[in-house]
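FAQ: What does a multi-protein file look like?

Like this. Sequence, then tokens, then the next protein.
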Amino acid sequence: MFQIRKAIMAAAIGGSLLTGGAIGAIVAGPLAASAATSSPAATAATTTAAAATAPSGTFVPNENATHEAGESAAREAQENAGQVPTVP
């Protein structure tokens, strides 16, 4: 009887460890992967690649007077040309 209880307890502990490990990998795996690749060089490359892709819609500039007051001349020129602004 003691041998059966011992085997059942070992199977329960092993199953619990495997289940916890699988759940942990599913939940924390993407977090660990993104943290491992979040170097300044990788971030710059990602930002550059994202800026180089064409947007999937039509750009509509914000012509609100409050917005226009704080806008640089370079940004306004890009908006007037129908481009998505890349300068502040």
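And here is the next protein:
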Amino acid sequence: MSETLNIWEKPTADEIYMITGWRQWADAGSMSSLLPKYLIQETDAKHIGSISPDGFYLFQIPGTHDLVRPMVQFSEGFPESLESKRNDFYYSEVSGKGFVYFLGDEPHMDVDRYVGAILEAAEELGVKRIISFGGVYAEVPYDKERPISSSYSLRRLKPELDELAVDLTDYQGGAAIGSYLCKRAEDRDLEYVGFYAFAPTYDFAQFAQNANGFRIENDFRAWLGVMRRVNHMLEVNFALADLEEKTRDLNESVAEKIEEMDNRYPEMGVSKYFERLSDGFDETVFDPLSNVWEDELKRLLDDEE
């Protein structure tokens, strides 16, 4: 094991998966930073390892003030706290299967060594597949299922993704940490699947000068959509009732905000804007039960033949 990686407890489950997330660039809706943290808390996962931060992070960038500097807090001259970058592994079991959760800070440099440490951990722990979460902001209806894009490391995984109502990405551009991990996993013949949800953001400058828009910071509907797919893909049962309730509450909260804006600024036509957005949106609903019925019907027809 490299000096960068420290695993002090190894799970013994027969089938182990890894869920990864970061405090990172592609974190719309807090898909990458808070959804893994939520799963760690909900499953009472225990801390089993870490990656040393040494060599991955900048202290400062010339010409900027505190863009990358760690945050410090003093009280009457005494240093109460100093922020430090963390990259930690946790573990719990769900439906008899093992889950390693990795939650970290996207590195500023030496990304190959950083990603290498994650993949080394996956190999060391006997992980069957790595699943990564990310998010991007888009002008999508708040009350509809989120579009979800996906990537994968090995071609044999494509038939599984074809059943998950996701768009297989054709993205070209700057790589997020998950995209980098996807390619390096392919180099090592490791299974990797990335899910990127499109979280709602709205800009009302088109209606009035200096008008403020808003975006959904913790997009529980996106979290729910991704976790439904994880449950189906891995044949497990992460409890989702709480996320379903949070999704309903989020929907009501945004609807109230829209009504408030309509009452305060009727000339902006905010409700009409959301109606047009919804009417022009092609919603993709993931319904695994429909696949079950289709498979059963096909089986019955085959039996009759």
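Q: Is there any per-entry metadata?
A: Some entries carry free-text notes. For the entry above: The chain is about 35% helix and 25% strand.
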